[in-house]
Amino acid sequence: HWAPISERVRALMAADPRYPAPLPDTWTPLVDTATWCAYTPVWRGDSRARPVLGRHGRDDPLKWPRQRDALRAAYCADRPCEVRFLGGSHHARAVAGRRPGNWRDLPFGSQDVRALLADLDVFVHFPAADYIEEFGRAPMEAMAVGVPVILPPEFRPTFGEAALYAAPDAVWPLVARLRTDRAFWESRVAE
Known about the structure:
By secondary structure, the protein is of the alpha/beta class. It has helices at 7-15, 33-36, 68-74, 90-96, 113-118, 137-145, 156-159, 171-180, 182-190, and strands spanning 52-56, 82-86, 103-106, 122-124, 149-151, 164-165.
């Protein structure tokens, strides 16, 4: 028996005749809610000089957009914000052509993931367009901690209304709205 980890994987399995029909239930990864949901979400639009965005994950070429413009737009390069990468951004910097002044690398394991996420205003996760992310544990962890998440549209079947979806060039306008519109931010955390 084959159980898909997400609706995206279910669709791929159903379209590929090499797989048997998947089980009717999707087996999404679990998270310990007592641990991950212990933080109280905090809107900081009126207390921080600029928003803090971030992500955590492997620094692998598949985990970043391959096109320079898409990468720079999705991760708000040179915008008035701080962007924290737990796990590094060596491959992203190679695509970007240079390290934007607002990007900050944190080595993998240098900070507790939950603490990093709880200190973000927005979580951004844009892997390479040709990479099939089976689920997206990092975005799920950000949601569990209480951080709004911005993803490319191909994640909609997995996360539904729990995330915001945008093309790379639409990330910054969403960040700006989340920063200035507390009710909008709180509605995204409540999802």
